[in-house]
Design goal:
Structural class: alpha+beta
Strand content: 25-35%
Largest sheet: 4 strands, mixed
Number of domains: 1
Radius of gyration: 12 Å
Distance between the termini: 16 Å
Helix content: 25-40%
């Protein structure tokens, strides 16, 4: 299983940026940047979990559904949802984990 460590959270106008240390199984650690817009956070969580926890779940979904060499150095949560429509169902099933 991949290791995902959420680092610095930076608030920007309308969104948060997160530094994420991602270590896919058998791969070296990579630093990636994740962006989460405030409306996406509200849509998925209604404030039930922290933005960092939501990014952790989105990153885990991305790792489970994307080959390691295709995971981008930066991603926007909404772009992941557009590419992988199953993300919303995944989150509804896993946010309480």
């Amino acid at each position: 299983m991949a290791s995902i460590q959420i680092g610095t959270e930076t608030e920007r106008p309308g969104a948060w940026l997160f530094d994420v240390a991602l270590t896919p199984e058998g791969e070296p650690t990579r630093q990636i940047t994740a962006r989460l817009a405030w409306p996406d956070y509200d849509h998925w969580t209604s404030g039930s979990v922290s933005p960092a926890r939501l990014i952790e779940h989105i990153t885990r979904f991305l790792v489970e559904h994307t080959p390691p060499d295709e995971i981008p150095d930066a991603f926007d949560a909404a772009a992941v949802r557009r590419k992988h429509p199953a993300l919303t169902e995944y989150l509804s099933n896993h946010l309480d984990d």
